Task: inverse folding
């Protein structure tokens, strides 16, 4: 069974540029999560989807971050414009339902110069 | 916001030795989970222990939970070089349907 797929794996951009990350969850998983992991820290939730509905986006910086999960499968996380402090690893995870075990993708490592 | 606080934050042991790490948390939880993260990779779920459980085993892993002290421990027995990784505890808090991760323990197993 394929795991959670993320792309790109690495991205280097200059500040003020836009950037987008893509995630394909495990087939049949209804819940999708986006996390940000800063260096030396644990992941912090940005947004959680139940199917196509964003049910917890309280920690998403909405002035520059946006996300969508069209048709309740793939998801895209966008930052526009990027700031130096956005440099981090962006992790996508999925689970059958909320409170089930979460399976993480390999992450996208973003460097903003 | 970070919830669990792992201790020690860095641990270096010889292959074959046991590794023990602790996690403390602050709120009431539904369950506590441990994850492993190898360098440059995503997190892998290791084990989940529910709030009404005190101990759980999975292969070479043993997890304990003391809800009165709000703490958990992860024991890796007979460590291998492949166990070199960062280990995170994460609490599933009542009320917010959200996993809160600690900062992680870095474990290095020397062959």
Result:
């Amino acid at each position: 069974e394929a795991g959670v797929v993320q792309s790109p794996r690495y991205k280097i951009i200059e500040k003020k540029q836009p950037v987008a990350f893509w995630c394909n969850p495990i087939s049949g998983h209804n819940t999708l999560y986006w996390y940000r992991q800063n260096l030396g820290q644990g992941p912090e939730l940005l947004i959680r989807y139940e199917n196509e509905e964003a049910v917890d986006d309280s920690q998403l910086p909405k002035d520059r971050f946006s996300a969508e999960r069209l048709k309740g499968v793939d998801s895209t996380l966008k930052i526009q414009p990027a700031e130096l402090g956005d440099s981090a690893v962006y992790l996508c995870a999925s689970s059958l339902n909320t409170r089930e075990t979460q399976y993480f993708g390999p992450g996208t490592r973003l460097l903003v110069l | 916001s970070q919830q669990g606080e792992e201790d020690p934050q860095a641990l270096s042991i010889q292959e074959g030795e046991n590794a023990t790490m602790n996690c403390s948390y602050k709120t009431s939880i539904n369950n506590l989970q441990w994850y492993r993260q190898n360098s440059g990779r995503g997190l892998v779920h290791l084990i989940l222990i529910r709030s009404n459980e005190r101990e759980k085993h999975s292969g070479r892993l043993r997890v304990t939970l003391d809800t009165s002290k709000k703490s958990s421990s992860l024991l890796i027995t007979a460590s291998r070089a492949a166990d070199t990784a960062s280990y995170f505890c994460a609490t599933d808090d009542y009320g917010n349907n959200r996993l809160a991760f600690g900062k992680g323990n870095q474990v290095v197993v020397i062959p």
Summary: Chain B is about 0% helix and 60% strand. Chain B has a mean pLDDT of 90.
